[in-house]
Every structure is written in structure tokens, then in C-alpha cells.
Amino acid sequence: MLSMPGLRLRRKKKLNRSIAVDLALFLVLSAAGAFMAVPFVFMVSTALKPLDEMFLFPPTFIVRSPTLDNFYDLTLIFANSWVPLSRYIFNTVFVAFLGTAGHVILASMAAYPLAKLKLPGGNLLFTIVILSLMFAPQVTAIPNYLTITWLGLLDSYWALIFPALATSLGLFLMKQFMEQIPDALIEAAKIDGASEYRIFWKIIMPIVRPAWLTLVIFSFKGLWGTGSGEQGASFVYSEQLKTMDYAFGQILSGGFVRSGPMAAAALIMMLVPVSIFILTQRSVIQTMSTSGLKD
């Protein structure tokens, strides 16, 4: 009985909106989507351009004579390197996946007591977390280096992974999302005899799935494209432990003649984060649309 008024209301709203309005809305959204796709299309086009087209003036947006020579040249560059490309790929995938998984788990486990257990001093700790969001990565570079050195983790995978585990954004996002979970749901689970550990893994984490999937995108993007490269320059010295963004960055030292392979490398580095975003975009939209709701 309660659902019938809502059903009639939805039908009424649908009838009030004309086909012209729907068409106009579709055209506006299509134009906005096409505009946002311009950088991606340009990057794909640039990666397929032969070297002579890259330096045309005025520059061309769409490639005229597409070729895969840039990708072939990229493989030749690493074929002559004493560290194979597969090693760089393994290092990047290992650091990105392990760092992302560790960050999501630790941020969620830290956010749960702050959001639901009302710990003494919890508000002060969360205030410190919020304040830490204002610091740029360059500000924390020296403290991170001193900490990694003190732990004896320099020149290892952990030198790249450990700083990513303590990113403040993950704790902030997970706490804000967990606060929306009704306390009655947790109390009912405790009455049924569930432990805090089981409540966290069986109830809390499935409910906040959109939030931690969003966090996966942010954390993975940072480790895959930029974060690991910035840290790798100062924390990792062995060439065997370098990541792809560092290896591709060395291509720039070859000058203009390597502009084609560099465009191919940039496209490869972008495809993985974009693919992950496409697979999880529904959860990201759900997180953003419900982040301001309260019980």
C-alpha cells in the first residue's frame, strides 16, 4: 500500500517531462561526454602518429596515417636494456596491488572504531587526520625518507608500499561513509553474539563496498602512475626494483626522436587506471551521491 503513491508519483513525473526535454537533455549530456573524451582521443591519436606528424604546424588532432611503429620502437628500446620490460611491469603491478589492498584494509579498520566505537580522543585523532590532508606530498617527503631509513626498508618494495598505506584520504573517506550505517544494525549483531571482528568483515565492509571501491581507484591510480615514481627516485636505487613510470620517464632523455615511444608509453600507463575506473564507476557515483546523507 505504501509503494502505490510513490509509484503513481514516479509515473506522473515521467508523463510531465516531454520528449523534447528528454532529447535536449540527451544532447547536452552527449556533448559533455564528448568534450571529456577529447584528451583520451587525442592521446590515442598521438600514440598512433608517425614521427613526422607529431611536429606538424598547425598540429593535427586526428592521425592521418596511423601506425604501430611507436609501440614497436618502445619494445626495441627495452630490448636493448639490461633490465627487461617485464621486470618493470611486475614491479609496478606488485607495488600497486599490494599497496592498494593494504591501504584499503588499514583505512577501513582504522575508520570503524572512529566511526562506531566512540573511542576517547577519537574526535581529536580525526581532526589531525583532516589537517594532514592539507599537506602536499613534497612536505612529507623528508619525514617519509627518515622513517623508511629508520625501519631499514630503503631499496626495497616496502619503501614504495609503506607510505601508501598511511594515506589520510582513505581514513577520511571510510569514516564518513561508515557513520551513515545505523547503530541499531551493529547492536542487533552484537545481541546475536557476533564479535567485533565478524561485524566488521560480514556487515560493515559489504555495506560500505561502494566507498572502498572508490578508494581502490584513488589509491591504485596514485601508485600506478605518479606516487611510485616520485618515491622510487629517492627510496629505491636498484634498477631491478624500479617501476614502469620511472622506466618510461627515462625515454624522455632521448630527446625529440623518442617522442613517439613516449606517447605510446603514456597511453599504456593510462589504459589500466581508466579500465579500472570503467569497471567500478557505478560504485563511485553511488559513493558521491550518498556521501552527504545522514540517518
Structural overview:
This protein has two domains: 3-73, no CATH class; 81-290, Orthogonal Bundle (MetI-like fold), CATH 1.10.3720.10. It has helices spanning 3-16, 19-47, 51-54, 69-79, 85-117, 122-132, 141-151, 158-165, 168-178, 183-191, 196-207, 209-235, 244-249, 259-290. The protein is mainly alpha-helical and 295 residues long. The protein is 74% helix and 0% strand. It is flat and about 70 Å long. Mean pLDDT is 79; it is low at 1-13 and 291-295. The protein contains 14 helices and no strands. The chain crosses the membrane at residues 21-48, 88-112, 124-145, 157-178, 199-220, 262-280.
- Which band does the percent of strand residues land in? under 5%
Helix content: over 70%
General form: flat
User: What number of domains?
Assistant: 2
Q: What is the CATH topology of the largest domain?
A: MetI-like fold
Please give the CATH architecture of the largest domain.
Orthogonal Bundle
Rg result: 24 Å
Number of helices: 14
Instruction: Provide the succession of SSEs.
Output: HHHHHHHHHHHHHH
Query: On the 0-100 scale, what is the average pLDDT?
Result: 79
Q: Whole-Å distance between the termini?
A: 24 Å
Kindly name the structural category: mainly alpha
Q: CATH superfamily of the largest domain, called what? A: MetI-like
Membrane topology: Multi-pass membrane protein
Transmembrane segments: 21-48, 88-112, 124-145, 157-178, 199-220, 262-280
InterPro entries: MetI-like, MetI-like_sf
Domain ABC transmembrane type-1: 89-280
Secondary structure elements and pairings:
Elements (H helix, E strand, L loop, with lengths): L2 H14 L2 H29 L3 H4 L14 H11 L5 H33 L4 H11 L8 H11 L6 H8 L2 H11 L4 H9 L4 H12 L1 H27 L8 H6 L9 H32 L5
Helix pairs in contact: 2-14, 4-14, 5-8, 5-9, 5-12, 6-9, 8-12, 9-12, 12-14
